[in-house]
Amino acid sequence: MIDHISVAFGVSDLERSARFYEATLAPLGLSRLVTIGFGKTYPEFWINLRQGMARIPLESGNHICLRAKATGDVDSFHAAALAAGGRSDGGPGLRPHDRVKYYAAFVIDPDGNRIEAGTFPAG
Fold it and tell me: What domains sit in the chain, N to C, each tagged with a CATH number?
């Protein structure tokens, strides 16, 4: 189990990104607890200011996946991210693989960081 994560490449505008993540992470039960930290009871997800940073290249392939409780939370995560200025990198849906079937959505934040929300539906 991960204790906390910092968005690896940071963010170029702290307040813009804090507003983005505040809206985007709310459907997953995470709220802004401190200036740059989001969580349920303590900060588990951090953003870091990197002034003057270049936009993250799309081909970087890096992303962070956060667990959702249900498919509706994944849908809400995706919608909230788009409404907050993010871009879709894969809409909500089933992602079947050889051994496991999961439901996920992928978004890109204003700096190019990729965030996924996923859950494992029963059945």
Answer: 5-50+62-119 (3.10.180.10)
Q: How confident is the model at residue 1 (pLDDT cuts 50, 70, 90)?
A: low
Q: Which amino acid is at 80?
A: A
pLDDT score recorded for residue 122: 82
Cβ neighbours of residue 10 under 8 Å, at least 6 residues apart? 47, 48, 49, 50, 53, 111
**Global pTM value:** 0.88
Are the C-beta atoms of residues 117 and 65 closer than 8 Å to each other? yes
pLDDT for res 7 = 60
For residue 65 the two structure tokens come to 């996946």
Residue 93, helix vs strand vs coil? strand
Backbone φ/ψ region at 44: left (φ over 0), alpha (ψ -120 to 50), beta: alpha
The torsion angle over the Cα atoms of residues 117, 33, 85 and 4, rounded to 10 degrees, is: -40
